[in-house]
Structures are given as structure tokens and as C-alpha cells.
Amino acid sequence: MPIENIPEIYFESISTPQDLFVYDFKMTNDVVKSKVNLSMNMFSFLQVGKKQVHFANTSVAVNNQQSLLLKKGNWLWTELLDTDAIYYCKLFFFSEKKLTDFLSKYTNNVKPYQEEVPYFVIENDDYLAAFISTLSSQAFSNPIFSDALLLLKFEEIMLYLLNKYGSQFEHYLHSLISKEISPFKNVVESNVHSNLKLEEIAFLCNMSLSTFKRHFTNEYHEPPGKWIQDKRLQRAKELLQTGNLKASDIYLDIGYNNLSNFSVAFKNKFGISPSDILK
């Protein structure tokens, strides 16, 4: 799975980095779990379709009734078409410099607030709908005026959201310029019961697979493949013991591509098949 460098892949004739950038993104094919290196903080104003983003220690899913503010970093995301086989969103990128300038100008510039969640969900309303309708990459194509227009649009959306969400949003904005990175163990243990592959967890740790394996063995004194499989199988056993779920309900969620492989691994570990767990 190749890594997409965003927003760089959207730059065409731009030779120097931009502090503010708008891009209209459309597609007609589902994208399943892309690896994304997001180098700028980004508003994602979803117009048509659905989007899911998996972070180092959590995930979020939205439709066109909500918008997302995403912190820059290495994320995995899935974009799904709607019933008309289209996906469309407007993306608004901004640099830390512009964010810092805004916070200094309009807020008390309090000490950065440490926020564990790298996203902020925005509930769309009539004002936001009107604002989003004014965003278009073509609208900011004139180099003489585009920088000034983009700055006005950036300050407009930030001020509106500060007015709408108050200190909650202000604290989140300060967290975007925090340099603290999630500890390695926090990333691993937040995803141990997910269906992510080893290389995907390594990506969320910003490591190559080989580096991740070495680091994991140093931390846990056990190879990651075996450790994660044991944890997921133990979780599967707990779920089956509730009596509310069958093996066919859970095998995908704990990282197995098919029911047969899950059943074999389960029996090898516990000596009984998943279907016999309550017998």
C-alpha cells in the first residue's frame, strides 16, 4: 500500500509550500484504508459519501452531516462512495504558522492544551453550509488576491467555530501546535483489538515494519505477531463466552481475513473450536 503525501500530491504548478490551500476532491471509486502522510492540519468538509479515519489510538467516521478538523500526522483513512457512486469533499489546509498567528491575534494564547484525540468533529449547520459553498480551488486561482482571500476565509471559519464551541475548540486548536508524540506502547495497545495489520500499526507509529518489529521486541520481549495474535484470540474468547456472538460475527474485527483461518488459530491456542466455546 503506497503512502500518499497530502496535500503535496494536490500541488500542480506550485513550486513553494503554501500556508493556506484549498482543494476540491472528487472520486468515483471506493478507497479502502489509504496510508496518508498529512503534512498540514486540514479541514475536511465532506459533501457526498462517507469517511473513516484511523489514528494512532482511536478512529472516527463521518458523513456529510459533519465536518472534520484533522491534525497533521500519519493516518489511515477510508473514503466510501454514496449510493450515486460518487465521493466529494472540500479540503482546507493550513500551516502551523497561520494557526499560531491566529491564536496570537484572537485568543489569550494560553499554554498549549494536551488533547489526546487528533481530530475535532464539527456539526454542520446553515452557516457552515454557506461557508463551504464559497470554498473552491478555482475561486482562489488569482495570485494577486488569493492569499488575502484565503486568509479571510481561514479567519472566518476559525472565528465562527470559536464562537460555536468556545473553549473546547480553543483548547483543541492549541493542541495542534503541541509537539508531544504518542508513546509507542500507547499506539500498540490502542490497536491490539483492532483489525489492523502489523504493517499498518507500524505506519501509525511512523516506523518501517522492520524497525517496528525490533522496537516491539525490545519493549515487550516477544515478537509482535505472536503477541498481538494471542491478545486478539483472548479477546475473541471473551466475546464468544458472552453467548451473544458467533465466530462469524467477530473474526474480521480481530484481524482475520476468513473464518477458517480464525477457527484454526483459535483451536491451536485453546484446544477447542470457537463453536464449542459454550458447550
Describe this structure in words.
It is built from 10 helices and 10 strands. It has 279 residues and is an alpha+beta fold. It has helices spanning 96-106, 126-133, 146-165, 167-175, 184-190, 198-204, 209-220, 224-241, 247-250, 259-270; strands at residues 3-6, 20-27, 31-38, 41-48, 50-54, 59-62, 66-70, 73-80, 87-94, 119-123. It folds into 2 domains: 3-175, Jelly Rolls; 184-276, Homeodomain-like (Arc Repressor Mutant, subunit A, Orthogonal Bundle), CATH 1.10.10. A 5-stranded mixed sheet has the order 1-3-8-5-6, with helices on one face. Strands 2-9-4-7-10 form a 5-stranded antiparallel sheet.
Helix content: 25-40%
Report the portion of residues in β strands.
15-25%
Q: Roughly how many Å apart are the termini?
A: 42 Å
In the CATH scheme, what's the topology name of the largest domain? Answer: Jelly Rolls
* Beta-strand segment tally: 10
Structural class by helix and strand composition: alpha+beta
Neighbour order of strands in the largest sheet: 1-3-8-5-6
What would CATH call the class of the largest domain? Answer: Mainly Beta
Uncertain runs are: none
Q: How many helices in DSSP terms? A: 10
Structurally, the number of domains stands at 2
| H/E element order | EEEEEEEEEHEHHHHHHHHH
Q: What form results from the Cα inertia axes? A: elongated
CATH architectural grouping of the largest domain = Sandwich
The biggest beta sheet is recorded as:
5 strands, mixed
Average pLDDT works out at: 86
